Amino acid sequence: MTCGPRFLTRLAVLLVGAALALFGSATALRAQSQATTGIIRGVVSDPNGAPVANAQVILHETQTNFTRTLTTDAAGNFTGTLLPLGTYDVTARSVGYAEVKRTGVQLSVGETVDLRLSLAAVTLAAVTVEATQPVVDVTQSAAATPLNAAAVTGLPNNGRNYLNLTLLTPNVAIVQGPDGDELTVAGQRGIHNTSTRCRSWWSSPAAPAPSSGAPPADS
Q: What distance in Å separates the CA atoms of residue 117 and residue 120, rounded to the nearest whole number?
């Protein structure tokens, strides 16, 4: 089949018409999208004004909770296109900087909002270290509970037996041993435990002789 000049002319006209129709439809759709959306763009910089690359920018529409997260390019630029209309909170953050937040950004029909977000340097709060007495005495290998004078004189002690004061230490009890009362700590036999008493307290004139089984007075 031979195509004459008239057929080729008609074919060219049809192709041009189809291309114009497609271009017109795309333009109409783009115009319609721009008529119902908006654009928020800007640049993120450091305190010295230098652009911050790979910074995270969050666009949050406060009424619908619509959120879009963007990342700045090497020049610190970000662009959010086809955004629903409304009021936005724009937050920018990056490692090593304190985040910055811009609230109440209004986006109207077909509007392009330009922002410049300057990140602040991180400010470290001062830390005050106070010297306190350690809970554990690292110079002593044995477990012990020291009792001050107030504890000794303020607690009732029937017979002024100093062994009764050892009951203030956790896991300590007085049990009956082969030679009388003896101390047990965490279930150990009394032979493995040691107690020391103040000579002045024990030798007080009002103090009676120790009860049976109590260790003898210091010499």
A: 10
